[in-house]
Design a protein that fits this description.
The structure holds two protein chains of two kinds. By secondary structure, chain A is of the alpha+beta class. Chain A is built from 14 helices and 21 strands. A nine-stranded mixed beta sheet of chain B has the order 3-2-4-5-1-6-7-8-9, with helices on both faces. Classes of the chains: A alpha+beta, B alpha/beta.
């Protein structure tokens, strides 16, 4: 079967993307810049700017002189490659072999594909039309070799389809740049008056090699087709999903459980082989009446443990309404992470925060009642009691500072301090008695005051003077006075209970 | 002949404990620091891998109970264990737990809205062998539910504490013991001004195969002491000095 290759050239690749994100840029001249040797160079310009004479490689200051209202945006070096990868993945709908052709093109191996579109012309038109609909200005050319397709796309406006008969004649009309040679070689060819490939093809190969190196011979042979050129196709990431269609619709819980187990077995088998573990997973059930029921789970650490994942799903299976029956099950793992096999232990004696069983328990609790209700605390560098602990981000996070024990803290702390009525003799002395919830407590022993100032960079307000007091019955309380005694605006509060 | 009879009784009693689900766990350290209370337990050892019940009516008693439970947890958890504290209305302040000899970052607090969820979460946690102990603050719990919790711990060996709050008429549940902790006025000391060390009245109203009783104890230097030992002698003792200066 004769080989056919498609070359797609995006003339304004980077600027087209910016225009898509910001539609107002479509109608004004704008360029992308990046610094180079202490000045700003234009890396790409859009069609309007180019029509006014601003092109790639110009210094930004010169371009501003030509078009004063020029819009300038910063260029990202990896933008083009990322964008081309995305486009290449999309192009897999036209051919299974798609390669990126940096800096601004794609290559497709279209051998045996075009008849599905009803011929080369339709194939090329379809690609061009679809890319144009997506907002990209693309020139698409199909030819027998990559070289001719590439050159024709960039240096010949007329042709879109280069048939096998026209192959050589079209190649001959192209300039030497179309051979993808180095700039230096191209310049020397032009200097020598060789402005068309026609003139190079006729020249004796030995003298060409002597003057311009082996590269020109290779490129020429590849363009003509006497030497095979290979492309490196992109490998699209296969999504982590498993599907199980059923012959008879399933409407029972037992049936769903069996399906789930089967799906987990195949998915976890694949994850285990690739040393991955899933963090989130979704089970989609397609009902015969067209509705989709779905449940999802989240794990706190990557896992490919079938039993554990099954338990997590089991808690949520009751949310699935099978209706008249489910005909297709789809299990997806949208988020996967590396999960290296743990070293086997001779005994399971490690009781601690690193224990996998603990993480699995918290997954089960979190999936049923919500992860926001599971807390673990670490000390924080604040004296203000409410801020003296912070939530830990993970089970493994270690405290950076040690827990303070120098000042006693109540074992029970009220979320909001409750106002109390107090009799206190003189400033800075602990109170003699206080009334809390209608009950009078006479104070026998007291410690304090411990003054805790507001952290002004976080919150404004008055300081607190804390007292630890004990009443006649031996109950111990943590009281504080908000504000100074002498400015009459102070208030007393009860904030906690000591053991 | 008499000696052999006593031996037979002792053997039978040990068998009986084993058959009733009380495993003889080697927890000398725990009993050592429990001080006078240890004599109440079967085999003189604090039962682990079972459900304990603690009752408190008032907020002040809840605080005393939290302190007492933390002291027990600190010994059960040892150097690297973890505990889960499940509650629907938690006021426990993590920083304060350090004073009872346990790192607060080894606690996982689960704060729920409904009592029903607390029981479910406690059931799940008690079945997981990776934790040392589980504390659940539950208001109302019926006998059947408590029996389920007890069956869970018999497999996993986790010790459970049910802290029951503000229950006026308290029904019986399938727990091994029932405790009530309340604060006592601290003693006067010339050498220590202000409020002293925690002092509790520990009432053990039920203990399976043990002897219930009431003790007045104080928590000092990581151990329980009977209250009749004056604090001055404890402070003045050589051991304390050695620890402080060394």
């Amino acid at each position: 079967m004769p080989k056919r290759y498609v070359s797609i050239w995006f003339r304004y690749l980077a600027t087209d993307l910016h225009s898509l994100c910001q539609p107002q840029l479509k109608s004004i001249p704008f360029v992308l810049r990046s610094p180079s040797h202490g000045r700003m160079l234009i890396t790409s310009s859009n069609a309007i700017a180019e029509s006014k004479g601003v092109c790639q490689g110009m210094v930004l200051a010169d371009a501003r002189a030509i078009i004063p209202e020029l819009q300038v945006l910063d260029d990202r070096p990896d933008l083009k490659e990322k964008l081309l990868t995305k486009l290449a993945e999309w192009c897999i709908c036209f051919s299974p072999i798609v390669a990126i052709d940096l800096p601004d093109g794609l290559l497709l191996d279209a051998s045996g594909c075009t008849h599905l579109w009803g011929g080369d012309q339709n194939y090329v038109n379809d690609i061009g039309k679809k890319l144009h609909a997506r907002g990209y200005d693309a020139k698409v050319v199909i030819a027998d070799t990559i070289g001719v397709a590439w050159g024709t796309a960039r240096f010949n406006r007329k042709y879109q389809v280069v048939s096998t008969n026209d192959h050589l004649s079209i190649l001959q009309t192209l300039p030497p740049e179309a051979l993808r040679l180095e700039n230096e070689t191209v310049e020397r060819l032009h200097k020598l008056g060789l402005h068309k490939i026609q003139q190079i093809i006729k020249a004796p190969r030995a003298s060409l090699r002597r003057r311009f190196g082996q590269d020109i011979i290779t490129k020429l042979n590849r363009a003509i087709g006497t030497e095979i050129e290979t492309i490196v196709p992109i490998m699209p990431v296969e999504p982590y999903q498993e599907r199980l269609p059923c012959i008879e619709p399933i409407a029972t819980r037992v049936g769903i459980e069996i399906v789930l187990e089967e799906l987990l077995k195949t998915l976890c088998g694949r994850l285990t082989n690739e040393q991955l573990g899933l963090r989130t997973s979704i089970l989609k059930c397609y009902r015969i009446d067209g509705k989709i029921e779905q449940v999802d789970i989240v794990t706190s650490r990557p896992s490919h443990n079938i039993k554990h994942l099954f338990q997590l799903f089991e808690l949520k299976l009751q949310n699935i309404d099978p209706g008249l029956g489910i005909e297709l099950f789809l299990l997806e793992a949208p988020r996967v992470e590396d999960h290296l096999p743990s070293q086997e232990k001779m005994w399971e004696g490690s009781v601690g925060l690193e224990d996998v069983r603990l993480a699995e328990l918290l997954d089960r609790l979190g999936n049923k009642i919500g992860t926001q209700s599971i807390h673990r605390y670490l000390p924080d560098e604040h004296y203000w009691p409410e801020r003296s602990v912070k939530l830990a981000n993970s089970l493994q996070e270690k405290p950076i500072i040690s827990w303070r024990v120098d000042e006693p803290r109540p074992v029970q702390l009220l979320h909001t301090p409750e106002p109390i009525e107090v009799t206190a003799p003189i400033p800075d002395y602990p109170p003699m008695l206080f009334i809390y919830k209608g009950k009078e407590h006479r104070i026998v022993h007291a410690d304090g005051p411990e003054r805790i100032e507001q952290e002004w960079w976080l919150q404004q307000g008055q300081h607190r003077d804390y007292y630890r007091v004990e009443d006649e019955e031996g109950n111990r309380y943590w009281l504080f006075r908000l504000g100074h005694y002498h400015d009459k605006s102070y208030k007393w509060f009860l904030h906690g209970f000591f053991a | 002949m008499v000696v052999s009879k006593a031996d037979i009784f002792k053997g039978l009693q040990t068998d009986l404990l084993r058959l009733q689900g009380l495993k003889s766990v080697n927890n000398c350290e725990l009993n050592n620091f429990l001080g006078p209370i240890a004599s109440a337990f079967p085999n003189h050892s604090f039962p682990l891998g079972v459900i304990h019940e603690l009752i408190s009516h008032r907020q002040e008693e809840v605080a005393a109970t939290s302190g007492f439970v933390t002291v027990l947890l600190s010994m059960i958890m040892g150097a690297s264990g973890t505990s889960i504290w499940i509650s629907a209305s938690r006021n426990v302040f993590p920083i304060a737990l350090k004073a009872f000899g346990v790192d607060p970052d080894r606690f996982i607090f689960i704060d729920l809205k409904k009592e029903k969820d607390v029981v479910w979460a406690m059931d799940e946690a008690l079945k997981c062998g990776a934790v040392s102990a589980v504390v659940g603050e539950i208001g109302e719990i019926d006998f059947k539910t408590s029996r389920r919790l007890q069956l869970g711990v018999e497999h996993s060996g986790v010790t459970g504490f049910i802290v029951r709050k503000a229950s006026r008429n308290i029904g019986t549940i399938a727990s091994v013991s029932r405790w009530k902790i309340s604060s006592l006025p601290s003693e006067k000391s010339d050498r220590l001004p202000g409020i002293g060390f925690p002092k509790w009245k520990v009432e053990l109203s039920k203990i399976r195969n043990g002897k219930p009783g009431t003790w007045d104890v104080k928590w000092f230097d990581g151990k329980f002491f009977p209250t009749h030992v004056p604090i001055d002698t404890l402070v003045a003792s050589d051991q304390w000095h050695k620890k402080k200066t060394g």
